[in-house]
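CORE FACILITY INTAKE
Project code: CF-77B
Contact: R.S. (postdoc)
Sample description: multi-component assembly, two entities in total
Requested service: structural model of the whole complex
Turnaround: standard
Below are the sequence entries exactly as provided by the requester. Do not edit them.
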Amino acid sequence: MPSLYDVAAIGNAIVDVIAPASEAFLEAEGLAKGSMMLIDETRALALYGRMAGGVEASGGSAANTAAGVASFGGRAAYLGKVADDQLGEVFAHDIRAIGVDFRASPLEGRPATGACLINVTPDGERTMCTYLGAAIELRDTDIDQEVVEGASVLYLEGYLFDPPEARRAFAKAAGLARGAGRTIALSLSDAFVVERHREALLGFIEGQVDIVFANESELKSLFRTDDFDAAARSIGAMTKIAAVTRGAAGSVVLAEGAIIAVEAFPVEKVVDTTGAGDQYAAGFLFGLAGGRPLESCGRLASLAASEVISHYGPRPQASLRQLATAKGL
Amino acid sequence: MPSLYDVAAIGNAIVDVIAPASEAFLEAEGLAKGSMMLIDETRALALYGRMAGGVEASGGSAANTAAGVASFGGRAAYLGKVADDQLGEVFAHDIRAIGVDFRASPLEGRPATGACLINVTPDGERTMCTYLGAAIELRDTDIDQEVVEGASVLYLEGYLFDPPEARRAFAKAAGLARGAGRTIALSLSDAFVVERHREALLGFIEGQVDIVFANESELKSLFRTDDFDAAARSIGAMTKIAAVTRGAAGSVVLAEGAIIAVEAFPVEKVVDTTGAGDQYAAGFLFGLAGGRPLESCGRLASLAASEVISHYGPRPQASLRQLATAKGL
């Protein structure tokens, strides 16, 4: 069946609040640098009260990836839940403005649209505290069959393993995609998410996932090892394609026995790493949708990641399509 | 009387929505590049719907200046009106987080917090459409006597000449400051504001203003002339100090017959000029509060402007105090 979309992404719909912070601030707040921690509304309000002034930008891992695919000129759809409030309007506006099909109607009343409080240290590393808010209300009834069955790739974020109802939605979407003969991709999202849901994630990957995106620490956590090569071999054996990012050291793509090393694109100054993994996945999936060889997919992935880490915010500010053309990709 | 604050600023409290745009978009929307246009809520929603995805950041001209003064380590207070909604919370959080005293309680119910829709063209120039929202509800009863009388400088934005009630608040604040023997500073804000309120502005400047901030086009509009030197002489004769910015060409400070040329600080890439004039005023007023010579005030002003135009958003992302120290100012 021809596809309506290159990628349909499902995730926690979140607006980011991004502010500069010192290492001492992270320590005083008990935040593990580079991680994502779930917090409740009370904690969110208290932490926000102590954070520096910042900027607000639409986020959500899988939503960022859908936005990146659209910025490359790909066809993307997104499923996720925001509330009927100002930040929910911002989220819906931004994802539609970049060209992603976002059909969901907002949740009426409480809880408010989810927010991710992101403290960015001077080295550009981001530390995230997420208040899921309305995102937690994503139900299996929110899974639009036409969208999921119509997409070449169903892209799921590991963060969805946290809200119990979302896991049901996740399972329903995977079943529909599988039934329609579509490809299923999963991002591991965060080492602590992997720690919390290791067995469930491993079972899901073995049973249903074709493409896994992970960074080094997530991958090591998944296989409870400090040996990167061993972990890479393990994930390579479990999936058709695994793409593992290693920050400035680039990434490694494993596919049917082959191992392809991909260099990172040079960046003048790393301002904020928020969204780096999300945009990597966007470039990779856009390349795959275009039938490109894996090495070329990896180059597009690296390019997209390099754009997003050069400014505040988790989504591209430049057109990734124009950027790719300018770089001869 | 010793002062509680270096600067008390009064203005329209606004949250900015900043998005990239093409020159063709401005033309299609009928927007005069580089200007500020007032729009109603219906027009705001329609324009927002057609704008690209963006970021939200607290703004408001005088609020940005207060934030800049605080970022330099100065003592600043701000008076302005937001609503009891999410963007109002963002505004209140951000201005307090940077260290500005902001005591106002939010407006309950409608209208919503004011928003400025800012389209940034590839050359970094910003074109603004403002929906005043709750800002229009600023009343003379919102003018906190202790704050105004306690500040060395009362800083007012010309934008306040638009909402009728705000003009009354403006007049009350000026009267209090004058009575307490304080300095009154005014930013002309925008050439179209000057066009709308030329006579009222000229009367206010002649009667009550000690320091005027303007850019070249605002100054020419004020005196209905294309002759910059003539306009500069005119404003110099009307006030104790006039600081006139000329973009990349730097600025000119006129004070009691003296004319001081100040160079712009070099910037690698102009990303978004939003807030350039506001931060110029912040640096200048912080310098004055510290008893510095005018040339040094101008250098601090240029430094603050250079920081803010190198990123999206109208307020400093770096500590201006640290930046000034690093530059030996």
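Facility notes:
- The longest helix of chain A spans residues 191-208.
- Chain A touches chain B at residues 17, 19-20, 48-49, 51-58, 67, 85-87, 90, 93-95, 97-98, 112, 311-313, 315, 317-318 (CB under 8 Å).
Invoice: internal transfer
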